[in-house]
Amino acid sequence: MKEWLARWRRVGPILERIEREELRNYDFAANRDEIESLLEIGVQHAQPRDGSGLVELQRRLRELFE
Question: What distance in Å separates the CA atoms of residue 24 and residue 16, rounded to the nearest whole number?
């Protein structure tokens, strides 16, 4: 687990830089139809939430590390 965490500490910032660059260079106008389709899928399948999901995440992490 320690090795895995160390790897993500090294690789995480690199992946974040790649993601930012790809988003900066993405042609949203050229892909408008695809973007609208994906957003529509989200609207069609959306379900109301009682919270942000943070409590659920904390519960799952506690179970994982106990």
Answer: 12
Helix (H, G, I), strand (E, B) or coil at 14: helix
CA 36 – CA 7 distance, rounded (Å): 36
Q: 53's torsion region: left (phi>0), alpha (psi -120 to 50) or beta?
A: left
* 56 dihedral zone (left: phi>0; alpha: psi -120 to 50; beta): alpha
CA distance 21 to 26: 9
pLDDT in tens, 1-34: 899 999 999 999 999 999 999 999 999 999 999 9
